[in-house]
Amino acid sequence: MNIVFVTSEVAPLAKTGGLADVCGALPAELARQGHRVSVVMPAYRGCFHQGLAIQDTGHRLELPIGQRLVSAQLLETTLPESDVPVYLVQQAAFFDRPGLYGEGGRDYPDNCERFVLLARAALELPRFFDMAVDVFHSHDWQAGLVPALLNIEYRHARGYSGIASVFTIHNLAYQGCFPSWDMAVTGLDWRYFNYRQLEFYGQLSLLKAGLVFADALTTVSPTYAREIQTPEQGYGLDGVLRERGESLTGIVNGVDGRVWDPATDQHLPARYDVTTWQEGKAECKAALQAEMGLAVDPFVPLIGLVGRLADQKGWDLVAQVMRRWLPHEYAQWVVLGTGQPEYHSLLGDLAAQFPGKLSVRLGFHEGLAHRIEAASDLFAMPSRYEPCGLNQLYSLKYGAVPVVRNTGGLADTVTDASAAHLSAGVATGFHFDHYDADALDATLRRAVHCYRFQRGDWEKLVATGMSQDWSWGQSARQYVAMYEQAVERKRNAASQAS
Ligand code: ADP
Ligand code: GLC
Predict the structure, then answer these.
(1) CATH topology for 2-254+473-497?
(2) Separation of 269 CA from ligand 2 center, angstroms?
(3) pLDDT by residue (tens digit) across 156-165?
(4) Which residue puts its alpha carbon closest to atom 19 of ligand 1?
(5) In what order do the strands lie in the sheet with 177-178?
(6) pLDDT digits (tens, 9 = 90+) for 99-149
(7) From the CB of 18, is ligand 2 less than 6 Å away?
(8) What is the residue extent of each domain of the chain?
(9) Architecture of domain 277-469
(10) Is 387 in the pocket of ligand 2 (CB under 6 A)?
(11) What is the pTM of this model?
């Protein structure tokens, strides 16, 4: 198959979260399985500082953005250790900026224009390279307009009528909502601004455009696929999603073993696998304790947290539990994150109060994220909701036992250390259900108790998690099966119409 990915993030070129990891790894795995894959993304300023050679393809685009024609250049690089081309849409006024979506906690005011440009540039790819594309696979609201434009504007364009569109929801909470007058920016007729199509409570929603117009929808875990069809977790879009329930599949994310593998990870002071984890992790733990200004102590349980400082991730619960634990408990905490300013000050204040027991790094540091996974005994993810989550998968692979809330992809990938699961040899972590500090507190205590006093069980937990296969192979095959169905549906519909 010939698949074009359209996305706002691709690791290692531009990353704020897991979307980048997925769009850096899944295309390479699909290519390894014999498919032709290209990726289209914006040429942000940061892309030029990631050590990848970026060339000009010589192609110039003139794209309608509202009443204007905006010109852009198409640059090209390749995903590391693959032959997957990544096309970067260069438009300096739009993308040559310090941030991806905004600065200082504020979104850029012209995000609608910026991502309409991305969608329009991507849709021109088949013409530029004269290639027969089977599927446009677009991701999150930033690429939500691709299925809509394909269905409406490109419906009768030569070579486009058989192309299917697949839209993946990585996070339903981010909806790409803009004032109604931005409809003009999309170039689509105002008649599509209605409650069954692009309108969402009086605004234009680019996410809804993807949900309504794509031939197939996916999200990043089966549990999240069910959750978002309920009013509690549907963010007002559960009705749309229920209506499209037949076309919505949940496929869990995988781990890119070229980037995340403790046996080969160049960010670590010591490398290890499932047979050598005790020594390997001990060395990584001592090094991280020294690096982060924590007391160097091999016995103290070290709890790691890495993630966006956003409400989604449960930092309010973490702070409550830290306040209870830090004065008395024999445990250390290490936190890496960046995001909402209120969490920056909350965590910064706590770290200043309890040096040696809590160390907080506020910023984005790829290498440190790896070292925390390797050094930690436990890894906490008390998310309010979690579409899939990659950090718990990295934790399993790095032997940092995950303590997670039983939601979304966390529920699908971590098996609780109940007595039954332990004796069946399938337990890999600790679950709690209710989103409250008492539940997180009790579950961390259960985990720490196991770490300190039930070493046999602990070693089994670590080894079971490390031995699991979370590589992309199987998930990529599920995507291919879904692409094939979408193409068949699309071609049947196209032949009926003609
Ligand atoms: P989400 O996509 O919701 O942010 P995921 O668990 O799917 O959550 O993916 C998060 C990814 O971003 C992981 O690769 C994680 O290591 C990385 N990450 C998040 N915050 C940071 C940070 N401050 N520094 C380095 N890596 C980070
Ligand atoms: C989103 C979700 C996260 C998921 C990631 C990649 O950012 O919050 O759970 O793992 O996308 O799919």
Answers:
(1) Rossmann fold (3.40.50)
(2) 28
(3) 999 999 999 9
(4) 307
(5) 177-178, 203-205, 199-200
(6) 999 998 899 999 999 999 999 999 999 998 889 999 999 999 999 999 999
(7) yes
(8) 2-254+473-497, 277-469
(9) 3-Layer(aba) Sandwich (3.40)
(10) yes
(11) 0.96
